[in-house]
Structure formats: structure tokens, C-alpha cells
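Input chain follows. Return C-alpha cells only.
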Amino acid sequence: MNMSKLFRSPRTALAVAAVACLALAGCTQSPAAHDERLTKATGIARVIVACSKDLWNETKPDGKNISNGPENSVKATVSAVSTGPRADRGLVEVTMTGMNLVAYLKELDANAHSSSWSGTPGNAAASRQVYDAIAPAIDRTKAATSPDDPAPEIVIDDTIPEKV
């Protein structure tokens, strides 16, 4: 088929191609309530995500999938868990604000829930694990009742039973 007959002007063909590329490049299959979850996360002053150092390193944001550009990258404080029952499990505590959590969730969503058109990122399983742990915690978050309310802590540390 002659494409020049299908599109009467080169500008029309270019516009159609541009729209198709944009539609395919940014497609994700976000979970239900994703937008509401992002809105709710903006109200969290501080959140702590405890997970293995390897899981954080695999999913920590690089800013590539954050739609608002590199100025919206995630700023977080990472420290090893050194006391308590989790001290010898290789966990880190990642502390961030709610706005940084929003940027992190956007990147996790893009990696974990990509469409079949855009391919599957190498860290899709890890991103899905973290997103699926953080999402219900945000959904359960209630407004602070006093300045002494602790920051929400989300622990991602599945345990394998010794005997199956």
C-alpha cells in the first residue's frame, strides 16, 4: 500500500507516527487505585522502608522512569539496621518523605507494571515485590493524631520456613 495516498501530507503522517510512539513508550498497566495512592502518599511526612540492601540497590530510583524529569528524583537516607532482631539479616532502612515516596512509586510502577509493548525491565520482579509491599501500607495510612506519632515503617523481609 502506498503510504503517501493514505496520508495526504507528510505532516499528518509525522503527527500520527509521533502519537503512536508516545503511546507505546509510556504505557504501563498501573494497578487500581494507583493515582489515589500517590495522592495519599503526598501527605506522609516521613516513611521508612526496611528491606535487604540488595533489594534496595535493585529498585532504587535512577530517575529514568519518573515522568516529571530528573528534578523529581528520589532523595532518601539509607542506613544499615544495626540493632534489634533484624540487625543480622542484612537489612537497610530507607527513609524518605512522602513526596520522594511518590517519585519512587512512579518508578516502581513503570518497572513492575510495564505493558507488553514496552518490554519487561530486568528488575520487574523486584519492583513488583516492593510496590506490592508499599501499596497496602499506604492504603492503610491514617492522618497523624499527634506530633509523637511514629513514621510509618514498611518491612519487606519474607522468611523461608525451616521445615516445609
